[in-house]
Amino acid sequence: MKSAAKGARKPPAKAGLYRQLPSVDEVLRGAELAALIGREGQATVTDAVHAILSRLRSDISTNQVDASSLDVALSGLAGAVAHQVRGSQRPSLRILINATGVILHTNLGRAPLPSAALDQVQEIGRAYSNLEFDLTSGERGERDMHVDRLFRQLLRRDAGAGASRSLSLAKSTELARAAHPAPAAVSTIVVNNNAAAVLLALNTLAEGGEAIVSRGELVEIGGSFRIPEIMAKSHATLREVGSTNRTRLADYERAINGNTRLLLRVHRSNFKITGFTEQPRLDELVRLARRRNLPLMEDLGSGALFDLSAVGVKGEPGVLDSLRAGVDIVTYSGDKLLGGPQAGMLSGGSDLIARMRANSLFRALRVDKLTYAALEATLLAYRKHDYDAIPAVRMMRLSKAEISQRAEAVAKELQASLLSVELMDGESVIGGGAAPSATLPTRLLAVASEGVTAHALAARLRAADPPVIARVADGRLLFDLRTVFPEQDKALTKALFQVATE
């Protein structure tokens, strides 16, 4: 035993392994990398070589490689460098499969764009355009004129058939219109998101003065941004009235003083208060604002341009509902219920919109030509009543039976895998801070694997190509095909087969 041990070959010391590593220049001079350098450039390939050699040094220091495995690694160095280059050149922002059933998933990019919007973005982005040029006069034009004409058509206060209307608001809306008829024309300007829209409106209408808002409406929106903080940045003073659960019209009336500039109503789009509650009706606030000669602004947050009751969502106001009720300025998002690109809209009376357009802050918050291109194409779909052309709206309109049929087909494909698959009833949600209590009936795929936790399966699916994002509940991985595009069903099935065999 001692003799065998004495005669055995000792593993090289770490120093010896380090000495076997080539220099960066030596690797770059190798004939195997000449073509790669020609395609990708010297700097990119150099960075990749640095990364590979650094990993090998780290592996040596942690005893993860020995002489034989290092020889293998060095013999395949050129291939490893090429793989590293491909990975470094791959965009960080990637498409994925959203199987969560959350239609407007903020972390997953909210609303997917309509095909027509993508086509228009490509068309406008690849050449010059008349973004701020009037083709008739040959003079400089306004960029928001490209969508304002469509918003005027969609948001006519006297619009008839096809207009958005929440049935629960119909009575109060008619009362307000009868008492304070408003002009049919509505103007709209666009900024980069709804928080920017709120900031611009408050700064324009209430800078140096007070804006009155209910304590029950001081919401926090995504990314920990809060309405009071946005108000502070606008240089408007927040005047809170009422309590968290109960605010009466008299609370607003008592708070109005010589420094009041605005009445603000904030839609509680990402939570709901139930029980012992009270809130003034919109028509009551409209009458109070008219009587005291103050503008009434409503931050809808999501802002639908179609009737949500058609998909079973009750009590969620649309943009036209608020304008018809007599609200002076409505702010809302482009990439939520509207189903378009990220943007923030301000719609209301032309005189107030003109003041906001003249505010120097508007230039800092305005959107680019690609956003206008995508938004215009999305609005055209609404104008044609082609709601299925808007992916987010189409997903809301999917029936449980349609989803079930696809889920059964995927489950059948997975019978040959090592996964346990079960179909079960479930609920989809709209998400994105819209209609927080609303759910849509759906059919779920519940997937499990013996010896592998649901969280481990979820992690494997996130590493797939494309990545798959699902829900974990009760120890199972749940897939809702409402938010999976039909053309992605095969990719989803393939990813599940792969993780089952890992």
Q: Can you characterise this structure?
A:
- The protein folds into three domains: 78 residues, no CATH class; 277 residues, Type I PLP-dependent aspartate aminotransferase-like (Major domain) (Aspartate Aminotransferase, domain 2, 3-Layer(aba) Sandwich); 107 residues, Aspartate Aminotransferase, domain 1.
- Helix content is 43%, strand content 16%.
- The chain is an alpha/beta fold and 502 residues long.
- The two termini are 41 Å apart.
- α5 crosses α7, α10 packs parallel to α14 and α10 packs parallel to α15.
- β12 and β13 form a beta hairpin.
- It has 22 helices and 16 strands.
- The strands form four sheets. A seven-stranded mixed sheet has the order 3-11-10-9-8-4-7, with helices on both faces. Strands 2-12-13-16-15 form a five-stranded mixed sheet. It has a two-stranded parallel ribbon with strand order 1-14.
CATH superfamily (homologous) name of the largest domain = Type I PLP-dependent aspartate aminotransferase-like (Major domain)
Our count of helices gives: 22
Q: How many strands? A: 16
The residue fraction in helices comes out at: 40-55%
Per CATH, the architecture of the largest domain is 3-Layer(aba) Sandwich
**Percent in strands:** 15-25%
Indicate the low-confidence ranges by residue numbers. Answer: 1-8, 160-183
Structural class, from helix and strand content?
alpha/beta
Distance between the termini: 41 Å
Largest sheet: 7 strands, mixed
Could you name the CATH topology of the largest domain?
Answer: Aspartate Aminotransferase, domain 2
Total domains: 3
Identify the CATH class of the largest domain: Alpha Beta
The 3D shape can be described as globular
Question: Could you give the order of strands across the largest sheet?
Answer: 3-11-10-9-8-4-7
Oligomer: single chain
Cα gyration radius (Å): 29 Å
- What is the mean predicted local confidence, pLDDT? 86
